[in-house]
């Protein structure tokens, strides 16, 4: 077998299996990369919501990253739920120490049910410590508003927010459009590489089962980068992966169900 790409997720655990570390590892597996994890927090969560969050000590995140980085090696990594400024600082310090550049920052702030996954006072650390290390940052619309300080109504607002967020140091950005219900039957993600904007337009699937869409998207993007895809191609693959996963949602649980991580591979007819 040719050399397998190695991918690390630094994120929170979702006991329900649809978001966080669990979504990331499933996505990595489906995209034929070797998945590793550094857990930052354990959430008590199902499709109905998050009922508790147990953050781990910042050293726990740092030591897990050190363990995999020093032994197995990391071709690309993503960050998800980081919860506190102290964990962000510990994670950023490891990324700097290893000199990793293929870094996808998914600036997770709030779960779909409304529970906070990032302390409000940690936003500054996210902007100042982590964004300068990001190859691509992937906020949803509410996260883009917090990071840019702008209220985003129009595509023009979104482009301005993208520029402002990139000014913190991220090389590229995708502002995801899942929360924008003004676009009718379209969902539009906006990609910006520091000079050019690209709108990725997909069909909006009318479903409540979108738990873990952001995690899954950023995990697929990270897998693509690890395999050496150019950034925009990795973004397009991640869009296709999440589109299939939402379209063939599993309808599990009694609330916002998870997406279907098997769907993309099955639709591609890829066999291993
Ligand atoms: N109903 C939907 N139909 C199709 N694509 C969607 C839908 N909801 C979200 N997406 C896609 O899923 C990804 C995650 O989007 P979003 O919901 O904005 O992020 P988050 O899960 O971080 O809140 C994006 O690529 C977005 O376009
Ligand atoms: C542990 C954890 N991390 C992230 C999310 C956000 O999920 P989404 O991808 O739906 O925004 C979540 N609900 N739980």
TrEMBL record:
Residues 14-260 form the Pyridoxamine kinase/Phosphomethylpyrimidine kinase domain. It holds the Pfam family Phos_pyr_kin. It is an enzyme of class 2 (transferase). It catalyses: 4-amino-5-hydroxymethyl-2-methylpyrimidine + ATP = 4-amino-2-methyl-5-(phosphooxymethyl)pyrimidine + ADP + H(+); 4-amino-2-methyl-5-(phosphooxymethyl)pyrimidine + ATP = 4-amino-2-methyl-5-(diphosphooxymethyl)pyrimidine + ADP. Keywords: Kinase, Thiamine biosynthesis, Transferase. GO terms for molecular function: hydroxymethylpyrimidine kinase activity; phosphomethylpyrimidine kinase activity. Pathway: Cofactor biosynthesis; thiamine diphosphate biosynthesis; 4-amino-2-methyl-5-diphosphomethylpyrimidine from 5-amino-1-(5-phospho-D-ribosyl)imidazole: step 3/3; Cofactor biosynthesis; thiamine diphosphate biosynthesis; 4-amino-2-methyl-5-diphosphomethylpyrimidine from 5-amino-1-(5-phospho-D-ribosyl)imidazole: step 2/3. InterPro entries: HMP/HMP-P_kinase_dom, PM/HMP-P_kinase-1, Ribokinase-like. Its EC number is 2.7.1.49, 2.7.4.7. It comes from the Bacteria. SUPFAM superfamilies: Ribokinase-like. Belongs to the ThiD family. This is Hydroxymethylpyrimidine/phosphomethylpyrimidine kinase. It comes from Paenibacillus rhizolycopersici.
């Amino acid at each position: 077998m040719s050399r397998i790409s190695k991918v690390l997720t630094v994120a929170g655990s979702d006991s329900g299996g649809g978001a966080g570390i669990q979504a990331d590892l499933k996505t990595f597996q489906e995209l034929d990369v070797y998945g590793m994890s550094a857990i930052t927090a354990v959430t008590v969560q199902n499709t109905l919501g998050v009922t508790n969050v147990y953050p781990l000590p910042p050293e726990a995140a740092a030591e897990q990253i050190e363990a995999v980085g020093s032994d197995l090696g990391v071709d690309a990594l993503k960050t998800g739920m980081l919860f506190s400024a102290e964990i962000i600082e510990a994670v950023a310090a490891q990324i700097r120490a290893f000199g990793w550049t293929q870094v996808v920052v998914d600036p997770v702030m709030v779960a779909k049910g409304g529970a906070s996954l990032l302390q409000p006072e940690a936003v500054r650390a996210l902007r100042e410590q982590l964004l300068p290390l990001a190859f691509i940052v992937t906020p949803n619309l509410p996260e883009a508003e917090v990071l840019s300080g702008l209220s985003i109504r129009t595509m023009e607002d979104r482009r301005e927010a993208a520029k402002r967020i990139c000014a913190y140091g991220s090389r590229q950005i995708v502002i995801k459009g899942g929360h924008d219900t003004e676009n009718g039957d379209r969902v539009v993600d906006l990609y910006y590489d520091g000079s050019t904007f690209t709108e990725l337009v997909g069909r909006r699937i009318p479903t409540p089962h979108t738990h873990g869409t952001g995690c899954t998207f950023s995990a697929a993007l990270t897998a693509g980068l690890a395999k050496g895809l150019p950034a925009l191609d990795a973004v397009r693959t991640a869009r296709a992966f999440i589109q299939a996963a939402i379209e063939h949602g599993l309808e599990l649980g009694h609330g916002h169900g998870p997406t279907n991580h098997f769907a993309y591979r099955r639709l591609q007819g890829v066999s291993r």
